[in-house]
From TrEMBL:
Residues 27-413 form the Sulfatase N-terminal domain. The keyword Transmembrane helix applies. Belongs to the sulfatase family. This is Steroid sulfatase. GO terms for cellular component: endoplasmic reticulum. SUPFAM superfamilies: Alkaline phosphatase-like. Residues 1-23 form the signal peptide. It comes from Saimiri boliviensis boliviensis.
Length: 583
């Protein structure tokens, strides 16, 4: 009929208008992540002496989350959870042994190829995607050119940064994270060999024992071998593991810290400028403020907190550069910016000279590598002027896993249906449409071990947190595991609790006074509900390949990346060459 024929063009126009208005409503997304920044470091979270005006500006123009939680208190698993919206134990990105993060670029472990990152989802929706900064989720599987774990294989169009992490070993004169390993594998064996040689020589000289010369040569050879391997490790670790990449190409090996934050900032700014006509996703994941600490001349010795404070203030400057750029490009109103840290501050970071190189976790106990609040309660700031009302503060429990479903929904991407997504869309909270977090329960893992359960009961202000085990701080009475530089998750390094250690975080955020049956009449009832929730959660965990198995964790020479034409030195500086050519 004529009426029916007229309806068809109108319907087509309606659907086109709907599609266009949806595309126009989709924001650009910038996800800023600091490394090891404590919740007590930014001014907007109470710091009175560190200057963070740009981070503070974000908070005043957006929403500040006061109970924002990392899914893990360590870099690699926390970033895996952030990228996928899933507890890292689901993807095999949680370790069953002592090391909880990757320490070599030529390890074969990493974020599995079947995991779906928010970058993949947004790329499928037409977003341009770039990761600028630290990755720390693996590189290759079987050959050095398969790049199976590389950012470009996980949904990013562009990558500039480091594939591993910033370490003391990356900066000459800053010490080593391997001191404990050196003591066990080098110094003690050499001492034993030395004592054995002296003892055998003395017995031989006194005629009490006839020692064949072959024994002396064997022990000397063993000592020489250990010493050679040790010196080789010291010489080669930095170039083999501390390098900058652009996409699949090494641009600087080893990386230079000179104006490094400025270079990362420039790369992020250029990517944003290149994509003003399309929607873009830009995670900017700083190397600051993980040790080795560094800052440019403009920021060195300017803060009240030594080299750590200088690094924080330089990072804040970088955040300001991005905010200024958005203003210049008139993109601010339609850009969602998220600022966070991958976990709490590393309280045990003290230099050999006694300088404090770790940040502040405010009033909270513990720090990085522990599930005390200081290890997992992190800054969480979101700004989107067109949609989110400025100056809000939300105290509900939220997680860094929530970013995955939040940005997916904003981009119009359906969530994967073949897997459990543990994060929840934050927009109802941010827009004031909901007053309650969708996280009734949260599960805190120490590596692959369920460490604590958090319960925010409906129709209650209480937030219960039950610890199945806690780390043994050393020295006793301190706020960390200073003898091992980081707390571990098993064996003699922890104390198990039966019944679990129970806190009401809403009344005791410092976790100083565990409740007991004498102080809480519902003690056993509360623990029963939490145990049942933990059991239900555990049943949803599939058997997955362990990305931290010893086979996946250790260095494999055939996976090692080196600059082309650099021979055995593995050293080059294309960044300097490119700079010269551009002039």
């Amino acid at each position: 009929t004529p009426l029916r024929k007229m309806k068809i063009p109108f319907l087509l126009l309606f659907f086109l208008w709907e599609a266009e208005s949806h595309a126009a409503s989709r924001p650009n997304i910038i996800l800023v992540m600091a490394d090891d920044l404590g919740i007590g470091d930014p001014g907007c979270y109470g710091n009175k002496t560190l200057r963070t005006p740009n981070i503070d500006r974000l908070a005043s123009e957006g929403v500040k989350l006061t109970q924002h939680l990392a899914a893990s208190p360590l870099c690699t698993p926390s970033r895996a959870a952030f990228m996928t919206g899933r507890y890292p134990v689901r993807s095999g990105m949680a370790s069953h042994s002592l090391p909880g993060v990757f320490l070599f670029t030529a390890s074969s472990g990493g974020l599995p190829t079947n995991e779906i990152t928010f970058a993949k989802l947004l790329k499928d929706q037409g977003y341009s995607t770039a990761l600028i900064g630290k990755w720390h989720l693996g590189m290759s599987c079987h050959s050095k050119t398969d790049f199976c774990h590389h950012p470009l294989h996980h949904g990013f169009n562009y990558f500039y940064g480091i594939s591993l992490t910033n370490l003391r070993d990356c900066k000459p004169g800053e010490g080593s994270v391997f001191i404990r390993g050196f003591r066990k594998l080098v110094f003690i064996p050499l001492q034993i060999i030395g004592v054995a040689l002296l003892t055998l020589a003395a017995l031989s000289c006194l005629g009490l024992l006839r020692v064949p010369l072959g024994i002396f040569f064997s022990l000397l050879f063993l000592a020489a071998l250990i010493l050679t391997l040790f010196l080789g490790f010291l010489h080669y670790f930095r170039p083999l593991n501390c390098f900058l990449m652009r996409n699949y190409e090494i641009t600087q090996q080893p990386m230079s810290y000179d104006n490094l934050t400025q270079r990362l900032t420039a790369e992020a700014a250029q990517f944003i400028q290149r994509n003003t006509e399309t929607h873009s996703l830009t995670p900017l994941t700083y190397l600051h403020v993980h040790t080795a600490l560094f800052s440019s001349k403009e920021f060195a010795s300017k803060s009240k907190h030594g080299v750590y404070g200088d690094a924080v203030e330089e990072m804040d400057w970088s955040v300001g550069q991005i905010l200024n750029l958005l203003d210049e490009l008139k993109l601010a109103n339609n850009t969602l910016i998220y600022f966070t840290s991958d976990q709490g501050a590393h309280v045990e970071e003290v230099s050999s000279k006694g300088e404090i190189h770790g940040g502040s976790n405010g009033i909270y106990k513990g720090g990085k590598a522990t599930n005390w609040e200081g290890g997992i309660r992190i800054p969480g700031i979101l700004r989107w002027p067109r949609v989110i009302h400025a100056g809000q503060k939300i105290d509900e429990p939220t997680s860094n896993m929530d970013i995955f479903p939040t940005v997916a929904k904003l981009a119009g991407a359906p969530l994967p249906e073949d897997r459990i997504i543990d994060g929840h869309d934050l927009m109802p909270l941010l827009e004031g449409k909901s007053q309650r977090s969708d996280h009734e329960f949260l599960f805190h893992y120490c590596n692959a071990y369920l460490n604590a359960v958090r319960w925010h009961p409906q129709n209650s202000t209480s937030i219960w947190k039950a610890f199945l085990f806690t780390p043994n701080f050393d020295p006793v009475g301190s706020n960390g595991c200073f003898s091992t530089h980081v707390c571990f998750c098993s064996g003699n390094y922890v104390t198990h609790h039966d019944p679990p250690l129970l806190f009401d975080i809403s009344k005791d955020p410092r976790e100083r006074n565990p409740v007991t049956p004498a102080t809480e009449p519902r003690f056993h009832e509360i623990l029963k509900v939490m145990q049942e929730a933990a059991d239900r959660h555990t049943k949803t965990l599939p058997e997955v390949p362990n990305q931290f198995s010893w086979d996946n964790f250790f260095w494999k020479p055939w996976l090692q990346l080196c600059c082309p034409s650099s021979g055995l030195s593995c050293q080059c500086d294309r960044e300097k060459q490119d700079k010269r050519l551009s002039h």
